[in-house]
Amino acid sequence: QVQLVESGGGSVQAGGSLRLSCTASRAATCMAWFRQAPGKEREGIGSVDDFGRTDYVESVEGRFTISRDNAKNTLHLQMNSLKPEDTAMYYCAALPIVFDCFIGAKFTDWGQGIQVTVSS
Length: 120
Prior knowledge:
Blueprint lengths: L3 E4 L2 E4 L4 E7 L5 E7 L6 E7 L4 E3 L7 E6 L4 E6 L8 E8 L13 E2 L3 E6 L1
Parallel strand pairs: 2-11
Antiparallel strand pairs: 1-3, 3-8, 4-5, 4-9, 5-6, 7-8, 9-10, 9-11
């Protein structure tokens, strides 16, 4: 089981940027970012496999970028052109071993989440 800890959250004005990081206790083949806004269901943002291949949902593609550093067991989420509707708790997730890595996969390991607030 992979332990995950998010960092880098905070508050930013609309149009601004934030960079989230996730530190994993060990390597995981597939990693992803999810978010959950108050009163809404959890939604996927994007995933990345150990080759750096990504899979994004349409709502954030072009604004958010997922990357990973396999040597450091870290995952990053660069968020640009932030909107108030991006306000949510953001979660890091992982699948230690998987053949197919995509945002719709059933991730087994989760971080505690970190708050991102975008003001207008």
